[in-house]
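A reminder from the course coordinator: this example appears on the midterm review sheet, so study it carefully.

Given structure:
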């Protein structure tokens, strides 16, 4: 069953009305979480004088694991339709998609970077999918996830069917290249620039991959978790942010 089938009983599709969160099937086994590291303190940093008062916290860094089918709600029909759309393009679904995660009622497709443009094109162009809009790009840094330290997350929306999904791509810090989706979704222009600016992900094929917030000659990428919390000279304003252990305290 495709999304635009007359047998589809979803009366909210295409009307701009947010649909209810799909419920997980009762007989589905819960996904096993992936523990990728351990965080010490509130911010997970070392040697920077964390003054939050939570330096003794020790918590595991956990990511939701892959979800086995059935996924519940419209997710199963969506995955089946995408599989058929990729097969029509002579692309093997299981080769392109690393895993599917359903977490807190939301679906994320983990896509291998070399096939990102193909998957995005299928989601946009297939008449039964029609994810016409990319809402933005988010960067994530997991320094303890060896070989997959940097993630780029694309938030896609189908205006036609009033549905949202995510595409997530993981790359190593030593090779932070991801194909740009500018050719598929031109609105990602500034979003990819911001992700590059703050995380250092290089979007190959972007028409002008330059910094968008920090000065052009700024060193490093300030949203990475291993970036210092303070003490960075801000030469273009003639100011300096003191490190945490030198800041004024109010306790």
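Designed residues:
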């Amino acid at each position: 069953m495709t999304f635009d089938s007359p047998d589809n009983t979803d009366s909210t599709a295409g009307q701009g009305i947010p649909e209810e969160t799909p419920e997980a099937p009762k007989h589905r086994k819960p996904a096993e979480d992936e523990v990728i590291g351990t965080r010490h303190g509130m911010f997970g940093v070392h040697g920077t004088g964390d003054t939050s008062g939570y330096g003794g916290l020790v918590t595991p860094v956990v990511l939701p694991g892959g979800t086995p089918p059935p996924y519940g709600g419209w997710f199963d029909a969506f995955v089946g339709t995408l599989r058929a759309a990729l097969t029509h393009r002579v692309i093997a679904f299981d080769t392109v998609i690393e895993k599917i995660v359903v977490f807190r009622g939301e679906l994320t497709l983990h896509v291998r970077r070399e096939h990102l443009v193909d998957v995005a094109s299928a989601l946009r162009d297939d008449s039964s999918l029609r994810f016409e809009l990319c809402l933005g790009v988010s960067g994530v840094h997991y320094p303890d996830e060896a070989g997959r330290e940097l993630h780029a997350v694309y938030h896609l929306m189908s205006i036609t069917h009033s549905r949202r999904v995510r595409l997530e791509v993981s790359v190593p810090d030593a090779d932070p290249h991801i194909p740009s989706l500018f050719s598929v979704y031109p609105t990602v222009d500034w979003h990819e620039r911001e992700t590059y600016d703050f995380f250092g992900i290089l979007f190959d094929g972007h028409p002008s991959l330059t910094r968008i917030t920090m000065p052009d000659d700024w060193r490093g990428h300030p949203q990475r978790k291993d970036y210092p919390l303070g003490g960075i000279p801000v030469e273009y304003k003639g100011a300096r942010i003191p490190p945490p252990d030198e800041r004024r305290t109010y306790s």
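The chain is about 15% helix and 25% strand. The first strand starts at residue 34 and ends at 40.
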